[in-house]
Design goal:
With 362 residues, the protein is mainly α. Helices cover 48% and strands 11% of the residues. The protein has helices spanning 44-61, 74-86, 92-110, 120-132, 138-153, 180-188, 192-204, 208-213, 252-262, 282-296, 304-317, 322-329, 334-340, 345-355, and strands at 8-13, 16-26, 32-38, 219-220, 225-228, 231-233, 236-238, 246-249.
Length: 362
């Protein structure tokens, strides 16, 4: 939320200028009220930041003053503040996942606990209980911390508990991704709209939501580019992940697929459409990909997102710099790109062989 200079006013009394926080807000009962107090920091920047915190808290909770620690449980915070005011700001897929995590695990484990009682020890125990079930703890623990960070932002607790690295176990096995040959074989043996979707994933690195939201006007085959400017989150059209628009050059293999896909389409029509003229949902794309892999006898069943992993990994393997791959994939940082670049056992052995190869006569 931005800083509102109108929330801070100057008052001069007996020749002394003071900065006053002064704004109106709507209470929990729907009544209009006024909040006035001297700013603790008597500098314009400090007073404005302090006022913005009070104002944000008033908007989200109906009360600019932080609630007493002894009365606010995680359930009351989730139901009264986070769900109606903060959750709608997330993408639809994220909202669905967070609501499921709340119902399935978090409400039962932490709902009755007061916000300040959920400390590092509580989160450690929560993570361990999930891992004993042979399940990943990263998502549930991460959402609890998201809730607590929002509470801290509103001044309801001092700070969200921190977890040292290593508390949440990460997979130790080398990650896997299909090779270019594997995914090209799937593209070659596919047809119709799933072929278009696979081509966009394999040759342009588009996410599932991006390929399903792509419109004919986003593709310029004369210039040879795809403009990635939108994505579908569930059935809602939004900005691409990270709000990052990007341009991806069209390679010949993809151009051949797209020429047929664009025939007769208006600029505002979507490119990936089923035979009934509807946009396939995320699960529909996945199910068709799995059916294709079963039909061709693929040994490993890859997800739609694995096509994007293959895209990034292949570019790095042929010598493309990681920064260029980051820009093409629309990642927020090289650190994110590195998670998508898969080093297999063969890759590592090949790197060592090339790095320490002896020449004849050594």
């Amino acid at each position: 939320m931005g800083i509102h200079t109108s929330l801070v006013k100057k008052r001069v009394r007996n020749g002394v200028t003071r900065l006053i926080i002064d704004f109106h807000y709507t209470t929990k009962s729907g009544e209009r009220a006024r909040f006035v107090r001297h700013a603790e920091l008597q500098t314009r920047d400090g007073a404005e930041r302090e006022a913005a915190r009070y104002h944000e808290r008033a908007i989200l909770t109906g009360d600019p003053e932080p609630e007493e620690r002894s009365t606010m449980t995680l359930s009351s915070f989730y139901e009264g503040v986070f769900k109606p005011k903060v959750l709608p700001l997330f993408r639809k897929n994220t909202r669905i996942r967070y609501e499921a995590l709340w119902r399935q695990r978090i409400e039962k484990s932490f709902g009755s606990m007061r916000l300040y009682e959920i400390d590092e020890a509580a989160l450690r125990g929560f993570a361990r209980a999930i891992e004993i079930e042979k399940r990943a703890a990263k998502g549930p623990v991460g959402f609890v911390r998201t809730l607590l960070r929002e509470a801290a932002q509103l001044g309801l607790i001092d700070a969200a508990p921190r977890l040292p690295r290593g508390v949440i176990k990460d997979a130790k096995k080398l990650p896997a991704a299909p090779t270019l040959a594997e995914v090209e074989d799937l593209v070659a043996k596919s047809s119709g709209w799933i072929k278009i979707a696979l081509g966009l994933g394999v040759y342009a690195g588009l996410r599932s939501g991006e390929m399903r939201a792509l419109r004919a006007g986003d593709i310029d085959l004369q210039v040879g580019v795809i403009r990635v400017v939108r994505a579908l989150s569930a059935d809602e059209e939004e900005e691409p992940k990270g709000d990052k628009h990007r341009i991806v050059p069209v390679v010949p293999q993809l151009a051949e697929i797209l020429r047929g896909a664009l025939k007769g389409k208006k600029a505002d029509e979507r490119v990936v459409l089923t035979g009934r003229g509807t946009t396939p949902c995320r699960q529909h794309v996945l199910s068709r990909l799995v059916e294709l892999q079963v039909r061709v006898g693929a040994r490993t069943k890859w997800s739609v997102h694995a096509l994007r992993h293959a895209f990034c990994s292949h570019l790095v393997r042929v010598g493309i710099g990681v920064e260029a791959v980051r820009a093409l994939a629309g990642h927020s940082s090289i650190r994110v790109t590195n998670r998508y670049v898969h080093a297999t056992g063969v890759d590592l052995q090949g790197a060592m062989d090339r790095g320490f190869r002896r020449t004849v006569g050594d």
